Amino acid sequence: MVEAISLITFVCLLLYILFGGADYGAGILDFFFKRADRKSIAEAIAAVWEANHVWLILVVVIAFNAFPLLFKTVCISLHIPLTLALIGIVTRGSAFVFRHYDPRDNRYDNPFYNRLFQWSSLLTPFFLGVVFGAMLGGRLRLTGSSSFYDAYIGSWCYPFPLVFGGFLAAFCAYLAAVLFSSENKTLGRSIYPVALRTQAIAVIAGMALLLMPDAWGHTLFSAFLDKPVALLLLGLSLIFAISLSFTLKSQSLHAARILLGAEALSVLLGWVCIDFPRVIHLANGAFLTLYNTAAPAATLKELLIALTTGVLVIVPALIYLFRVFKYKPLTKS
Amino acid sequence: MRPSKPPICPRPLLSVHCVKALDTLLAARLQMSLSLGFHIVFACIGMIMPFFMSIAEYKWLKTRDETYLQLARSWSRGVAVFFAVGAVSGTVLSFELGLLWPNFMLQAGPVIGMPFSYEGTFFFLEAIFLGLFLYGWDRIKPWWHWFFGLMVGVMGIGSGIIVVAANAWMNSPSGFDWVGGKAIHIDPVQAFFNDAWGPEALHMTLAALMATGMAVGGLHAWLLLRKKAVSFHQKALKITVPLTFLAALLMPFSGDLSARAIAKRQPEKLAAMEAQFHTEFGAGLLIGGIPNLEEQRVSLGLEIPGLLSWLTHGKRSAAVLGLDAFPEEDRPPVVITHLAFQLMIGIGTLSFGLALFYFFERLIRKRDLSGSKIWLRALSTLIPVGFLALEAGWTVTEVGRQPWIIYKIMRTRDAVTPMPGIGVSLLLYTSVYLALTIVICVLMRRQIILANQRYS
Where do the H-state alpha helices sit in chain A? Predict the structure, then answer.
């Protein structure tokens, strides 16, 4: 049962990184856009962005339902970066709709909306990445006998989580750049240089993340080296990344989508390979795992039923939503 | 730990020192009430407005009267903004449960997570249908478009009803055994279908309809007084006013149901609501009044003899437990609970009276009130009133449950985060939500001016 719920969580996380990530990325790219591009990107994501972020809510609900101790530990030790990410989420969503629904003609030139939207789009995935990185980094504590700094700041404010955050933000920007450049040819030409830059940044941040030692002096790269399957997945993700840079040039939409999905999937699977079932690396060297934090069987059973019915209705509805807005032509202009 | 200096507080609320010194428990409670109080407004609008829009769209499809289409479309522009803010502030809430009350969530998560997981599904569908509705005007066949709009409302109401189960469980915890500070033998289904859920969900759904209807109808009445876009605003009133007053008419019955349930299950909450300091046979219903804690009595109140006993226990001579029947450390705060309750009851009674008047005029005297200036003025004063009652009601149920976070199981102070300095986070959220409120007001003003210009 733990495995089934973990699998669903994994899928939610993957979809959040892809869809929510592209959405954050669109906001980061907004920094570099001209007015017309801003408007067409905003119109492209307006109908779907709300649904793209519900994946995060599902992950949280699963966390406190099925793995309550994981949720509690993260909520206490990583209170500060989580709060910052939440403020980012609120600011970002609000700035986006405010800009979209302000009846004034110059709304896409309004520096107030633009700055808020851009900075919150950058900082939210950064802090979410910091949270994720800190869970793996090995400085989280269960008991509160330490100083304020150790318990609430030192738990995340060191190179490994910060690089993780940087990588996630860069990856989001790259995701969006690839998707939007292949979706819309005219837009593609104008964001091609930006896409190349985000690609370079994402690659550098990825390298840095692989080689950055965690609290124990271990690097992710050495962890990948220890497991042949993980190493294979890492290699695959590298191949996907290289192929992606070709699709960026040829602007083929389907290839870009499939490759992006494969890229994110192989990276996440690589992480599962080296870490499953461990989720949090504690400062005392112990681990919080999916098994030692799991809720009682009765809870897991009900959750699994709820999630299965949920997925069965959500997925077709979501596919229909995307079909309507990405493929269906307007009935009247 | 070092002994901390007593806070020196020359100008409370302004001094950073005071924010830091603010007691963690109080700061966490304030932040939670701010977040809930903020979110609930947007959530209610997201639950109710889709129905108003669906009615307007239905009339457009049936009569081909352009005004209805304009109405549906301009409402949908407002709803898009409110729904988005509601969604992000709801995301914040789901995290805040853990950020502020980690020990509560550690035990409660596995027991009461089930409604949250179904609510998640409903909310997901609501977001999908909303996307189809808001942006699908030109892409989806008209009747399908109408159906998707209706489904936004159905999913919204559904998720609201389901998530109230979690709050109801905090008032009437069930579905587990509490042994040594831990929840064991968990039965999520029994926890989901707890005793308080029915009355609370009914009360909340009616309140959402009443509050949203009053705000929207009031706004249109106010604009109608300005004599611009007359037909547009009149049609808006035709849709919103009957439903709003229908809810107002049903409200006292739902309130009565809730009060009886509370009298049975949480007598100390009822005592605080009524400022009933002492146990009394044939207790009177108190109207107004300011509780005097030192003398344990109420000043300036009007009491109707025997009514409270009759309302809660069906007998005029029945005993109503007073606060003195409970140990001091288990009593809820009286002043806030009582005043909030009085505010809610006052508004409820007033609305009930208005509803009676409205239906009398409409159905018996067959008069159309939308031409009457006094009536329109009355409606426009209602703009904030419904939401005021809603916030007051939540204050009653939440403050009235104190000092417990899970009634008679876990105290709020045992649930709070060990992290100091929540005052800083409170300040941060307060400024963000304040700024959002201001921007939303400005935006709505611009939208209204635009609609008035377009449709007059």
Answer: 2-15, 21-29, 35-46, 49-52, 54-66, 68-77, 79-101, 111-137, 148, 159-183, 185-211, 220-226, 228-250, 253-275, 297-326
Put simply, the answer to whether A295 touches B109 (Cβ < 8 Å) is: yes
| A192, part of any domain | yes
DSSP B167-231: HHHHHS--SSEEETTEEES--HHHHHT-TTHHHHHHHHHHHHHHHHHHHHHHHHHHHHHTTSSHH
Q: Is A333 contained in some domain?
A: no
Task: State how many domains chain A has.
Answer: 1
The stretches in chain B having pLDDT less than 50 are 1-15, 18
Give the Cα separation of B31 and B37 in Å (integer).
10
Among B98, B138, B417, select the one facing A64 at the smallest CB separation: B98
Helix (H, G, I), strand (E, B) or coil at A153: helix
The answer to whether A281 and A214 are in contact (CB under 8 A) is yes
Q: Is B1 helix (H, G, I), strand (E, B) or coil?
A: coil
Of B388, B404, B453, B422, the C-alpha closest to B226 is: B453
pLDDT of residue B412: 92
Of A57-66, A82-91, A173-182, the range with the lowest mean pLDDT is: A173-182
ipTM above threshold 0.85? yes
SS3 B320: strand
Please say whether the beta carbons of B292 and B356 come within 8 A.
Answer: no
Q: Would the CB atoms of A310 and B118 count as touching at under 8 Å?
A: yes
Give yes or no for a contact between B372 and B313, defined as CB atoms under 8 angstroms apart.
no
Write out chain B residues lying below 8 Å of A66, CB-based: 110, 113
Three-state DSSP class for residue A298: helix
**Residue A79: predicted pLDDT:** 93
Residue A93 inside a domain? The answer is yes
- Looking at chain A, which residue has its C-alpha nearest residue B2? A147
| HEC sequence for B278-291 | CCEECCCEEEEEEE
Q: What is the pLDDT of residue B20?
A: 53
Report the residue of chain A nearest B87, measured CA to CA. Answer: A50
pLDDT number for residue B372: 83
Average pLDDT of chain A, as a whole number: 86
Structural domain boundaries, residue A158: 2-326
* A332 within a domain of the structure (yes/no): no
Show the tokens assigned to B186. 């968990």
* Closest by Cβ to A57, choosing from B91, B113, B432: B91
